[in-house]
Amino acid sequence: MKRAHLPGGFIRSVQLLRERVEDFSRYPFSIPAVRALEELALDPKVTFLVGENGSGKSTLIEALALLAGFNAEGGSKGFNFATRRSESELHAAMRLVRGARREKNGFFLRAESFFNVATQVDELGATQFYGGTSLHEQSHGESFLALVKHRFKPESLFFLDEPEAALSPARQLTLLAHMHELVERGRSQFIIATHSPIVLAYPGATIYRLSEDGIAEVAYEETEHFALTRDFLLHRERFFRELFRGGDDQDTS
Ligand SMILES: Nc1ncnc2c1ncn2[C@@H]1O[C@H](COP(=O)(O)OP(=O)(O)OP(=O)(O)O)[C@@H](O)[C@H]1O
Ligand SMILES: [Mg+2]
Predict the structure, then answer these.
(1) Is there a single domain that holds both residue 234 and residue 211?
(2) C-alpha 116 to ligand 1 mean position (Å)
(3) Ligand nearest 89 Cα, by number?
């Protein structure tokens, strides 16, 4: 799991300070991927977290975002929501190893809190910074891309939890194009939890799989996202024969 630090990112790695953990049998330390954590090197450009539902991606990304100075609810660093959600204690037992450069800004996008971000933008009267139309008056995907286009700036640090939730396949490709611009010309850094085989295909990224066995780096082609999606699209009749067999048996009994 330990990799040589790569130069160039705002955050080079994250460490779990195991001596600060009182009880590894309690959430969030009981999550296998957290329990096994020592030091995780982050890609200076794009790091993906993948894994089954409940494997700890959101817990880990939230802890990283909090350590980097973001609000637990999401948003840019200036955001300060009145509604407090209960954050896990994980960040208190972790440390970021920072690189030489410092990010100018960034964004923490939680999978479930985009609505709150949009409300905050309206309440701050900040719509003009998001393309001029209230994020609430656009579709989920339109408002998400407006956010990316207008508020994702160079030299920034981004934590995105399931950015694909709002986006059609074509717009996921648009997101990848924006990411490429922000990473290559803008020298920004992304940490992204995703289930999308399209988003995950971003070239050259580091992919970590969270599982019962801990956290391990995997190649894109080794991920279930790639392999299962490919097999399904190529042989979907076979999948459905398997999946629906129970129902057929019942029908004929
Ligand atoms: N506040 C909490 N208290 C106790 N357990 C929690 C809490 N939040 C999450 N968990 C548990 O921690 C585990 C990891 O949750 P997490 O939300 O990090 O998973 P995830 O990988 O993001 O899943 P998904 O792909 O469904 O978003 C889950 O088993 C979940 O039930
Ligand atoms: Mg999650």
Answers:
(1) no
(2) 20
(3) 1
Is 53 touching ligand 1 by the criterion CB < 6 Å? yes
Q: Are residues 201 and 236 in the same domain?
A: no
Residue 148 placed within a domain: yes
Q: Is 112 in the pocket of ligand 1 (CB under 6 A)?
A: no
190: which strand partners? 46, 158
pLDDT (tens digit, 9 = 90+) per residue, 140-174?
888 888 889 988 999 999 999 999 998 999 999 99
Distance 54 CA to ligand 2 centre (A): 7
Atom of ligand 1 nearest to the CA of 56: 18
The protein residue with its alpha carbon nearest to ligand 1, atom 4, reads 27
| pLDDT at 17 exceeding the cut of 90 | yes
Instruction: Find the domain containing 250 and state its range.
Output: 224-253
Number of compact structural domains in the chain: 2
Residues 172 and 230 in one domain: no
Structure confidence at residue 137 (pLDDT): 77
Q: Output the CA angle 231-162-154, nearest 5 degrees.
A: 120
What CATH number corresponds to the domain at position 128? 3.40.50.300
247 Cα: distance to centroid of ligand 2 (angstroms):
31
For residue 53, give the ligand nearest its CA.
1
Which of 67, 76, 83 is closest to 105 using CA atoms? Answer: 76
Helix, strand, or coil (residue 246): helix
Ligand 1 contacts CB of residue 169 (under 6 A): no
Are 177 and 244 members of one domain? no
Q: Say if residue 183 is in the same domain as residue 60.
A: yes
- Which DSSP string do the residues of 137-189 spell out, in sequence order? GS-HHHHHHHHHHHH--SSEEEEEE-GGGG--HHHHHHHHHHHHHHHHTT--E
Q: Is 2 part of any domain?
A: no
pTM, two decimals, is 0.90
